[in-house]
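Q: I have two molecules that I believe assemble together. Could you output structure tokens for the complex as a whole instead of separate predictions?
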Amino acid sequence: MKRLKFFSLSQWLTSRVDFKVMLAILVVAAVFIPITSFISYRHVLNEVQQAAELRVERLVKLIEKPASTAAYLNDKDLAQEIMSDLKNAPVIAYVQLTLSSGESLHLGEPSNDAATSFILPSHFSDEAVGKIDIVLNQNVIAQQARSDGLFLVAWQLGLLLIILLCMLFIFRWFVVQRLRTLMNQIQQVKLGNDMPEQVIQVSGNDEIAFLANHTNQLIQKIHGLYCDEAAKNLKIATLERQFRMIFENSNAGIALINRNNQVFLSNAAFERLFVVADADKISGQFYLPELFADPYELEDMLNQVRVDQASVFKDFCLQRGKDIWVRVLCSLVEEQHGNLNRFIELVAYDISDRAKQEKVFAYNATHDALTGLYNRRGAEQRFKEQLNYAKQHGRHFILALLDLNDFKPVNDQHGHDAGDVVLKVIGSRLLSVLRADDIIARWGGDEFVVAFVLDDLARLSIILDDIQRLFTIPIEISSDIKVSVGASIGVSQSSVDGYELMQLIESADAAMYKVKHAGKGDYHIAEKQPTDSIV
Amino acid sequence: MRKLITILGCCLALLALPSAASQDLYVVVNKQNPLKALTKQQLTDLFMGRSPYFPSGAAVLKLDAPGSSTLRQQFYHALVNMSLPEVNAYWARLMFSGRATPPMQVASENDMLQLISQNPNAIGYIPAGAMNEEVKVLFVISMAN
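A: Yes, here they are, computed for all two components at once.
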């Protein structure tokens, strides 16, 4: 706690520039004061020493006459008196007076310090009559020097403190206060449209005023940039919202596909259309072709787009339902940062409804509306397929053409509805006796064509008999009306006529007419030489 | 006429004064004194109180001319280059210690010659012209300069 307080105090001190300057000066002073003190002490010591020497010199000058008299007269009493007078001065530690007789008198403690000698001249001639040796009291001198030095240091310290205080106040007045003003002004600056021209102003024409002026300019510049940027941001945000709206609310599923055929980005419609799993949504990248009924087809298409660099569209059935169809439009997205990571933009429309419709159209085009069997057009297509299959596998292709006998009377007697019933019943009877792969078609008004593939021709007569038998059963038109129609059946086979459809049909037709001429309710299989084999 | 003579006498006296001042001084003792001569140093030591005896060992009676006489002034000036007040101050200072005794002052210059004539230990100084038979000169202080 104590430590925390101290820390905060130091922080408080260092956070203020005036105290920092004062601290710096104090530190510098703390370094220099001992040096200057030492120098001034040396100086003072020297001065005190010199002053002591001067004083001694003066003292000696004062007593010079009596001293030389005493030396001249060898008057010891007078000499003693003079010496004690001299010794009264505190700076003198030791006095020695040499008389003209050569005798020496001394007073005080002798020491090793160097003595100062003064020659005593005679009053009456140039010759010396004696000398005075004086040793200074270094202790007294040092003490005085110390006290003088201490006073000097104290005085310097006091002066320094006064100067520091003055500097503190002057600094605060000229710098800190104005800096505070500047700081407060900067703190109060709020960037906005209603900002005035001049937000920062400090009086004067010195560096701080210059700084304030430039700061003001800077803030004005920033303000301009800020306003521009804000306007730009607003525009971008609006645009972004619009684009986002287009992207997110689009009915078409839109997605970006990366190089690994993973979905990089997709919109809500895309996720709805493809029913993306939540886990995949979170991971963000999932393998797109898996969602299609035929993944390889989509992969081929994507690769084609990458190679050709052209837009391609194609309809696909989805994995999640056979009757869900999408039209997928793919095109390469040119990235601005080079071609390293090219995306494919994929737009998918749900075309299930249209696909169903198209299916119905296709069905209607190839099937007979009344009986539900293939019509002539549908049958021809199927025959070709089956012919190809039989040809490739070396099997027999059988084509039987059935022409109803006595159908016209039914129409005439019982109306067309009755005729329709007859046709329907025959169609369903044919379906019941034949295999699923066999083709049954309504060829014309009362003509049917049946085609099938056989391994063994021996079965042919059995099948034909089964078919013929169908026509022996009366057909119930209503509860009280029953009609019976027979059929003339002409049969052609690939082993005779080859795998040519037209040839087979012609042959079967010819065979059918033979039966018709011969008598109804029978079948005839076309032979190799049809012209020779007329029954 | 008498007035004229007085004036002339005064003029003569004025003319005679410089000649008297430039007269040499003789340091004289009684004829019986065995000393033949004295050096200036010895004379100074005697008169300034350093030596209480003659170099021969005999006691000495130093005689000084009257306090502010020209003779005394000339003597000390010539001997130690001191003025009379200085000489007086010198002796005044030494009176306390009592070790040195100043020369005895005589009432007049004639008394000095008379005292020397009577006392063999006496020593004094007289102008060169005042010599008599009873004294002998030990040192001549030349007043030429």
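A: One point stands out. The interface with chain B takes residues 66, 69, 72-75, 77-78, 81, 123-125 of chain A (CB under 8 Å).
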